[in-house]
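Q: I'm writing a short explainer about Bifunctional protein FolD for a general audience and would like to include a description of its predicted shape. Could you first generate the structure from this sequence?
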Amino acid sequence: MTTTLTSQPIAINIDGKKSAAKLLENTAQEVCQLKQQGITPCLAVVLVGDDAASHVYVRNKLRTAEQVGIKSIELRFDAQLTEARLLATIDELNNDPAVHGILVQLPLPQQINESAIVRAISPVKDVDGFHPQNAGGLVQGQRVITPCTPLGCLLLLQEYGGDLSGKHAVVIGRSNIVGKPMASLLLHAHCSVTTLHSRSRDAAQLARQADILIAAVGQPQMIDASWVKPGALVIDVGINRVTRPDGSTRLVGDVDYDSVSLVAKAITPVPGGVGPMTIACLMQNTVLAAELQLQQAAG
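A: Of course. Here's the predicted structure. Afterward I'll give you a sentence or two in plain language.
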């Protein structure tokens, strides 16, 4: 099947920065309400090693926390940190009532088992939403802390697509961080959901049936217009750094923005789409974590 392209983009550019700013404004109001009850939400961020991208991500998170009134604690360790020492640090944070959210920035050095670290964080302080208890609760539709990126994608879809009930959503990618929780959130929004992955047959044909298409595969510009149903909502989770012919680099998504914008109803850019919403949802999760711990303390 071929897709007929117009000569000019027809897709609405989904402004993640604008949506994130509105969410952060609401979060700041919730922080104020908690402070009136004597609770200052606090986020502890643990950074291990010298990964340049991780340092940038952490800096952005800490700056946003300050913006909305969330107290932040940054704990830095060198790349030789042992797993036992990191687990002991997490245990201390779990038992500190003044700390409401714990985020261990990934990736971790190879001597540390990431799964063990994720499991060690208290589920009510797991602001990434990666703990198995939160992952299972999400599948069952419970009120748990949800992974930030899928939550941000859902909020953008609801803002730009309205009621999602009955729509066919296709998620490309099945990671524990994005693909699987994204599918669960869409199911709870009453979508019919298809998940595509590296073993899927006729993937492009299946993707063309989607009213909502979410790409989270980590392959630069893999999804072009031939994968997209005219009028679909397209969310691009990918962040890939590619090299230009002159040796400089630029960020691109998993979606070929230029061609897909000729057929889609709306599409997220990279950067400026999902990324800002991910950080805004992290702040929202920190507030939720504080509220859950307040309820827990009240019995």
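A: For your explainer, you could say: The longest strand covers residues 42-48.
Q: Perfect, that's easy to follow.
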